[in-house]
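Students often ask why we bother encoding 3D structure as a string. The short answer is that it lets us treat folding as translation between two languages. Here is a chain of 309 residues written in the first language.
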Amino acid sequence: MVESSQVIVVGAAGMDTKGRPRKALVPGTSNPGDIRISVGGVGRNIAESLARMGVHTTLLSAVGDDEWGQRILECTAAGGVDVSQVLIKADHPSAAYLAILDEAGEKSISIDDMDIMESVTPQYVYARRRLIKEADMVVMDANLSPQAMRSLISTAQKYDVPVCADPTSAILAQRLIKHLAALYMITPDASEAEALCERGTSDRTEAMEAAKRLVALGVEIAIITLAEKGLCYATSEVSGYIPAIRSEVADRTGAGDALTAGVVFGLLNDFPIDEAVRLGVSAATLTLQSKETVCPDLSLERLYDQLVI
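And here it is in the second language, the structure alphabet:
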């Protein structure tokens, strides 16, 4: 393992509230079930997952000067992430994400409040250019404003630092379209991939074509996740499919973030792409089995125990 690797993660850090009914959802009334509140945010989740794998990870984000903001910082730091660069804003509440799951743990609907991410400005990114220069990789989520995203990508390009992107949602994915040729890796799910390349991704064949299309548009590595159907990946030289690991699902929130982190870890350690993707699938599976957004006992040892052969 390359223990000296440094990754800068730029993206959202917030609080997740998730409700899961015990039986099928009945619209228009209260459904008995379980409600859990945990620290989340796509960028933050990726950062903590990387840190738990032993990667030196710094988070660039913003939180409110409130009780949730303090909890976000404490939990993220406890996971091994450097949070010294995270902005604390008195004029914004911390980011929040609300999800209603179905009885199987699948997301039924969700709402997010990420207005505080407007505080991550191009000026904020520029002021931390030395950190970016010294990084081995930058990972961002699409909660960044278009201006901050452009600044981050241009700064990373200036210093030849590869940039990986998690599209975050089908709506936010559209912010990445004009930057595809500048991305080292992108990890959309089916709906996000459809927003990025305007073609269906409902099955393995379509997902493979979409991954190849993203590569043709300039991305070096495209990975399209298909939930329980597995994932497809493509580069300019190879492409492949990896099935999902059969597993009980406690909560799907954060699984894609863990997959991104696992693949990034593999790439940092010069794994072939197929091995790096298998490591990502292993990380996602462990997260699916956890009720927390980031698996609290995620580690290299557990990853390899779960690894797809």
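Translate back mentally: The chain has a mean pLDDT of 91. Keep this in mind for the problem set.
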